[in-house]
Ubiquitin carboxyl-terminal hydrolase (Arthrobotrys oligospora), 311 residues
Amino acid sequence: MAESGGWHTIESDAGVFTYLIESLGVQGVQFEELIALEADYLKQLSPVYGVIFLFKYQMGKNRSEAPMDGRHDMDAPNHMFFANQTIQNACATQAILSVLLNADKEQVDIGDSLREFKEFTNGFPSDLRGETLSNSDLIRDVHNSFSRSSPFVDEGTRQATEEDDLYHFIAYTPVNGVLYEIDGLQPAPIAHGSCTQDEFCDKVIPVIHRRIDRYPPSEIRFNLMAVVQDLRVKAVEIGDEEMLAREEQKRNDWETENELRRHNFVGFIHELLKGVIKEKIKGGTYDEWIKQTKDLNLQKAIAARKGEPVD
């Protein structure tokens, strides 16, 4: 896999993902973070088009090995969108598109831009599809517009090593009556047995549980995001005004958070800290302030070692 090629990392965040796909022209779809890994909980969000799973990636694994669960479907339908990941930092958007570009067109409106992209790459081998995705100015620019502003060196400018904590996004979605795991680092989609759209919630949860169980019990750094119908549309359909108000407020909060991501506050914080220090020195309380801060940090460190709550 090549280096970043101008792709930046983005957060696994429902607001980021929702506004990202809307910027690409997708209509009537949003993301919801799952706080419980239960089929009944997932069903409450129906219709569910797929899920995006974030996990710590184990470096050095041979991508041609047989999967530990399921099987590589080398004969997956030609019209199915599967692209190899050919560049770093693109896996979040690639996983998202793996759900959307395989969704039933009667259920999901992916918009003109993604529809043209899907039609253009139809019939391409998976590696060429990945190269085409990586070189799409539109998709890359929209993806990068949701990365955090940083004054420091972009991690994407260097090749990852086995010492890094790396995280990877993959997708699970039903296609043509089969539950597929779509991972751009694999040679083909991974089939997990028969699965209709109505069965998806019941069948995907055990698969994810089995994957998590392969990690040590101490590993808790996982994130699962459901790709669902815009919940504002659902609220209107069932006439739930309270739900509609909550979803509208959620959208407002997401918009604010996304706007903040685009700003670099290091300069502001630096000037603020300079002002605080200036006032402490002027008032003759600087040394006492530093001592109190050190004592407080020491107390927190001791409490943390003992497993005690830290205020």
Summary: Residues 151-163 have pLDDT under 50 and may be disordered. The chain has eleven helices and seven strands.
